[in-house]
Backbone:
């Protein structure tokens, strides 16, 4: 540093020294503050993760002993009769979810596309409705299904599909909209400038570009629908026997867990744990699968 | 004081002595030294073989076509790459005697000495004009109101913004025009009184008139702070810089320093044929 004795003190140099002195002297305090904040973040992260891990570990430890060949191949037995499995509930959950998905996905994605392409009043109303629907308690959906379907046509797997589809619909609409909106405006404009019509742009540009996001959203919606209990309790009635026909009453995993876990028989409680583990594994596989698929599809693009 | 650059060099004039004091290091003395600097991301070299000196009281321009590593190099000078996990900076960068990547160096303190202005104006949207101007001082633990006020006024005057904002310091930064926002960002950087100010294509998002004002500012600010500016605009480099570093992307996509020298010479009689081609607009 050059010292010039005959120069009057310069305000900028003075200020630079003051700022650097303040910065240096407060550095320790600032570092401590940042370390404390970081520690608190880690602590809260741990607090949030502990129950999650605990649930997973507990379900695995309780559910795994129930898993055997019979569990996956035999139907449920009446109370007091030992043995049996949850094959009928697996089939029921699969059939109900597949039908619910088959209805909710095209409907939801088209609504999502509409929301992306339109900014009018109808779109605003639809978006608001979808948001409200996301927040509707699932028991309400169950009662709605009960009154609208069961009351008129009786208990059936289809009534359950309707209720599950109702739960999935708003999730798919918003996931679809988010994915479609992520498509850069410039791609839209490029297609428009080449003379493409709106429907063509949507079909050839928007949907393919947004596909990874759409798939992730749909799989997450399915995972959500799989675990719903309340809507099924009021719509499918349950069935002790294997039933592939969705117009009849059906068994499903979530209501089975609900019913068996409160039974006074140890073997039924055991089966409930096994079913809970199965449901958890399916949801986990779907979630991880959707991530991997999205990553894979994005990489393919490059 | 802004005239001092064009004044003939008469030893020991008061102006010159004041100028020396302002930049701490006497004008023309080396403030930053780069030796064999290279930056790589996850094993891919983005820029390498960079060695030159940044002199006090001058504006040094980094020029070159896209992908030549200008911005990457600039960001190495105040350790902005620290936040990027895969980034590695090798070679030596000295600020005065301090090895900025050495164990003695704290990135936070370093950045209060080496400030930065970015491509797009980025005033903090939740803060008023005044709060934006003194944000850096507050981050650095300055609490004294008198010092904050004085620094804000001085920085806003230096950034040629004071007259238009002095009556609405409480207004949000977003109420300013793009060019004014960029000048607010310059004021924000100046208020910390850094020794070096890094400017990363500061006019690329601005219209020609706003660009002209920023370019004029660069000339005026050199007495106060040493400037390193990245630009893809050769005319701009010619107008604002005293020295110039020309970078070019090599065969393997890594940028390299081709030539460094006084701007006047680099633009009129460069020693490397590639520089000649570039400054004559034959490519890039």
Residues:
């Amino acid at each position: 540093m050059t010292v010039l004795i005959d120069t009057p003190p310069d305000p900028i140099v003075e200020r630079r020294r003051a700022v650097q002195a303040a910065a240096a002297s407060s550095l320790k305090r600032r570092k401590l503050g940042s370390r404390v904040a970081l520690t608190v973040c880690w602590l809260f992260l741990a607090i949030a993760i502990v129950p999650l891990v605990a649930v997973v570990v507990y379900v695995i430890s309780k559910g795994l002993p129930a898993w055997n060949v019979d569990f996956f191949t035999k139907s449920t037995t009446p109370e007091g009769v030992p043995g049996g499995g949850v094959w009928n509930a697996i089939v029921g959950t699969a059939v109900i979810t597949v039908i619910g998905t088959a209805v909710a996905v095209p409907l939801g994605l088209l609504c999502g596309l509409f929301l992306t392409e339109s900014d009018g009043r109808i779109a605003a109303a639809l978006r608001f409705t979808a948001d409200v629907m996301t927040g509707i308690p699932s028991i309400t959906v169950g009662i709605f299904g009960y009154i609208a379907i069961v009351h008129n046509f009786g208990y059936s797997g289809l009534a359950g599909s309707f209720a599950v589809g109702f739960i999935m619909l708003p999730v798919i609409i918003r996931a679809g909209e988010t994915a479609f909106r992520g498509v850069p405006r410039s791609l839209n404009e490029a297609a428009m400038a080449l003379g493409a019509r709106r429907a063509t742009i949507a079909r050839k540009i928007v949907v393919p570009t947004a596909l990874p996001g759409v798939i992730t959203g749909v799989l997450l919606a399915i995972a959500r629908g799989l675990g719903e209990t309340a809507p099924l309790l009021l719509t499918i009635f349950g069935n002790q026997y294997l039933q592939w026909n969705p117009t009849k009453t059906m068994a499903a995993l979530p209501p089975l867990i609900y019913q068996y876990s409160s039974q006074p028989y140890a073997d039924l409680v055991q089966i409930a744990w096994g079913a809970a583990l199965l449901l958890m594994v399916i949801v986990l596989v779907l979630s991880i699968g959707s991530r991997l698929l999205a990553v894979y599809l994005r990489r393919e693009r490059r | 004081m802004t005239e001092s650059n064009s004044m003939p060099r008469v030893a020991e004039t008061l102006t010159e002595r004041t100028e020396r004091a302002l930049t701490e290091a006497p004008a023309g003395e080396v403030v930053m030294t780069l030796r064999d600097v290279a930056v790589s991301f996850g094993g891919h070299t983005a820029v390498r073989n960079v060695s030159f000196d940044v002199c006090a009281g001058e504006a040094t321009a980094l020029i070159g076509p896209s992908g030549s590593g200008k911005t990457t190099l600039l960001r190495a000078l105040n350790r902005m790459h620290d936040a990027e996990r895969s980034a590695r900076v090798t070679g030596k960068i000295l600020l005065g005697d301090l090895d900025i990547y050495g164990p003695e160096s704290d990135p936070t303190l370093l950045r209060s000495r080496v400030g930065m202005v970015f491509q797009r104006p980025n005033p903090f949207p939740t803060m008023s004009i005044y709060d934006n101007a003194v944000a850096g001082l507050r981050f650095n633990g300055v609490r004294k109101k008198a010092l904050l006020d004085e620094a804000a006024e001085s920085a806003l005057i230096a950034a040629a913004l004071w007259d238009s904002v002095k009556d609405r310091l409480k207004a949000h930064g977003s109420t300013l025009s793009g060019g004014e926002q960029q000048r607010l960002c310059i004021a924000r950087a100046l208020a910390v009184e850094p020794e070096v100010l890094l400017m990363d294509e500061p006019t690329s998002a601005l219209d020609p008139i706003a660009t002209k004002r920023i370019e004029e500012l660069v000339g005026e600010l050199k007495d106060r702070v040493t400037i390193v500016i990245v630009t893809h605009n050769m005319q701009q480099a010619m107008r604002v810089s005293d020295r110039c570093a020309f970078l070019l992307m090599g065969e393997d996509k890594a940028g390299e320093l081709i030539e460094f020298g006084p701007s006047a010479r680099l633009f009129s009689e460069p020693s490397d044929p590639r520089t000649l081609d570039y400054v004559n607009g034959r490519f890039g």
